[in-house]
């Protein structure tokens, strides 16, 4: 079970209302978000714009969201995700990338990648080193978007990379191994998706987490028939959000004792026992990588939440206008 969110991010100029369906997204398209996918996160008005310059000739180019939120501590797989309110032309993207300056307290190699014409993510070539302080300076003042719009403000977000917390899920082994800074912490019993609704493979950085989420099968097109065995309408606890299409790690009342003994499949989510779900919820943060193996399903699309590490480095660079670079010194 899980919930699909239609727009996810840190609002810069206007508040974003997060509307969407609630259910474990076992079905649905293999590509979530599409060309206009927004970066996942929670709505906020945290960004502090600098004073507007002289108005350029043309309507403004505005940033809808920048994630992570300034002042936060995130995991080693967290990208910087920038979403524009209007399309950015292909010929303008190299210039736009140049004005999206990434700085760090220690040198990190990485690159931007465009998902369609409104979302650009910067991810490191490998995971961020723990303890790194990172800053994104989005200086869009006077920058053209290639479609007749010009930036009017600049924004700065500064965040920190926390402990290296990782979760490795074996679908066939019914286990989740949790490590912190390279040391094993716990191995938990899990159930993943059924043959009909398999779980995504691949690495997905945590989008967010909520103590309770209302989940329904109808909202993601699994079943709206109350008489169907696949119908559900539940509010479930300790929910760690992995994909925009609705994958969570959480507790399910329909699968209270997950593991190889019960071998009961979900609708695409990863089920933990109630005590394990609460414990895991307390361990992870936005940007921590959860890697799932052994499912018959493909890897989640890179823009289905924060799954950028499901692309090889050459694939990532293929979506960049300016190529690989090293962070400026912070």
Name the descriptors:
3 helices, five-stranded antiparallel beta sheet, 330 residues, mainly beta
Percent of residues in helices comes to under 10%
* Number of H- or I-type helical stretches: 3
Walk across the major sheet and give the strand order: 2-4-7-6-20
Mean pLDDT: 86
Total beta-strand segments: 21
Radius of gyration: 20 Å
Which overall shape is indicated by the principal axes computed on the Cα atoms? globular
Classify the beta-strand content into a percent band.
25-35%
Q: Residue ranges: pLDDT <50 for 5 or more in a row? A: 2-22, 27-48
**Helix-strand string:** EEEEHEEEEEEEEEEEEEEHEHEE
Q: Separation of termini?
A: 41 Å
Oligomer: single chain
Q: Report the sheet with the most strands, covering strand number, pairing sense and barrel closure.
A: 5 strands, antiparallel
Q: Which class do the helix and strand fractions yield? A: mainly beta
What does this structure look like?
There is one protein chain. The chain is mainly β. Helix content is 7%, strand content 32%. Strands 2-4-7-6-20 form a 5-stranded antiparallel beta sheet. Strands 3-10-8-5-21 form a 5-stranded mixed beta sheet. Strand 16 and strand 17 form a beta hairpin. It is globular, with a radius of gyration of 20 Å. The termini are far apart. The N terminus is likely disordered.
Describe, in short, the structure shown:
With about 325 residues, the chain is mostly beta strands.
Helix-strand blueprint:
Blueprint: E1 60-61, E2 63-67, E3 73-74, E4 80-84, H1 93-98, E5 100-104, E6 109-115, E7 119-124, E8 133-139, E9 150-151, E10 154-161, E11 165-170, E12 175-180, E13 183-189, E14 202-205, E15 208-216, E16 233-241, E17 248-251, E18 270-272, H2 274-283, E19 289-293, H3 313-318, E20 325-326, E21 328-329
Parallel strand pairs: 1-9, 3-10, 5-21, 11-19, 17-18
Antiparallel strand pairs: 2-4, 4-7, 5-8, 6-7, 6-20, 8-10, 11-12, 12-13, 14-19, 15-16, 16-17
């Amino acid at each position: 079970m899980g919930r699909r969110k239609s727009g996810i991010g840190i609002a810069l100029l206007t508040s974003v209302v997060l509307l969407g369906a609630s259910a474990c997204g076992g079905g649905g398209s293999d590509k979530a978000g599409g060309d206009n996918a927004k970066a996942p996160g929670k709505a906020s008005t945290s960004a502090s714009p600098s004073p507007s310059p002289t108005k350029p000739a043309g309507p403004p180019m505005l940033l809808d969201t920048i994630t992570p939120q300034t002042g936060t501590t995130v995991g080693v797989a967290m990208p910087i995700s920038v979403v524009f309110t209007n399309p950015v032309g292909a010929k303008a993207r190299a210039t736009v990338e140049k004005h999206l300056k990434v700085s760090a307290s220690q040198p990190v190699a990485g690159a931007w990648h465009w998902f369609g014409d409104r979302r650009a993510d910067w991810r490191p070539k490998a995971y961020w080193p723990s303890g790194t302080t990172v800053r994104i300076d989005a200086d869009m003042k006077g920058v053209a978007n290639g479609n007749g719009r010009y930036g009017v403000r600049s924004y700065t977000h500064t965040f920190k990379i926390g402990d290296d917390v990782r979760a490795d899920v074996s679908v066939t082994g019914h286990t989740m191994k949790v490590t912190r800074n390279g040391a094993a912490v716990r191995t938990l019993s899990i159930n993943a998706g059924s043959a009909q609704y398999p779980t995504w493979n691949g690495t997905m950085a945590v989008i967010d987490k909520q103590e309770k989420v209302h989940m329904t099968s109808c909202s993601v097109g699994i079943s709206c028939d109350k008489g169907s065995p696949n119908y559900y309408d539940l509010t479930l606890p300790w929910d760690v959000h992995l994909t925009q299409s609705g994958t969570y790690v959480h507790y399910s009342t329909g699968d209270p004792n997950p593991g190889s003994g019960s071998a009961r499949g979900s609708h695409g989510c990863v089920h933990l026992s109630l005590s394990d779900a609460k414990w895991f919820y307390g361990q992870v943060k936005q940007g921590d990588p959860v890697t799932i193996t052994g499912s018959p399903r493909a890897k989640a699309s890179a823009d289905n939440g924060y799954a950028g590490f499901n692309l090889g480095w050459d694939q990532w660079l293929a979506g960049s206008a300016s190529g690989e670079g090293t962070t400026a010194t912070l």
